[in-house]
Amino acid sequence: MGVKIEIFRMMVYLSFPVTMFWISNQAEYFEEYIVKRKREIFPQNEQLNRKELEDFKERMRLRKEQRILKNMSVESEN
């Protein structure tokens, strides 16, 4: 009787994590949540976001150029 209980306990100990791992890796259970979350993080209006990013990059480039020119003018004065 003791061996049967131990075998049952071992099966429960091994089957629970395996089952949980299997369930958590089933895409159809989480697909709706994942797609919804992805759309929240990365909205669909790609053109507006791209334009904002390009504007930001241009502003940063202009700042860097102005800083470099300023440093060059200070160095040339010395």
Can you put this structure into words, describing what you see?
- The protein is elongated.
- It is built from 3 helices and no strands.
- The protein starts with a helix and ends with a helix.
- The chain is 90% helix and 0% strand.
Can you give me a brief rundown of this structure?
This protein is mostly helical.
Ranges with pLDDT <50 over ≥5 residues?
Answer: none
Order of helices and strands: HHH
Report the count of strand segments: 0
Shape descriptor reads elongated
**Radius of gyration, rounded?**
30 Å
As a percent range, the share of strand residues is under 5%
The helix tally amounts to: 3
Task: Report the biggest beta sheet as strand number plus sense, adding barrel if it closes.
Answer: none
- Structural category: mainly alpha
| Straight-line N-to-C gap | 95 Å
Considering DSSP H and I runs of 4 or more, what fraction of the residues is helical? Answer: over 70%
What's the pLDDT, averaged over the residues? 87
What is this structure's SSE topology?
Blueprint: H1 2-24, H2 27-41, H3 46-77
List keywords for this structure.
single chain; 78 residues; mainly alpha; 3 helices; 90% helix
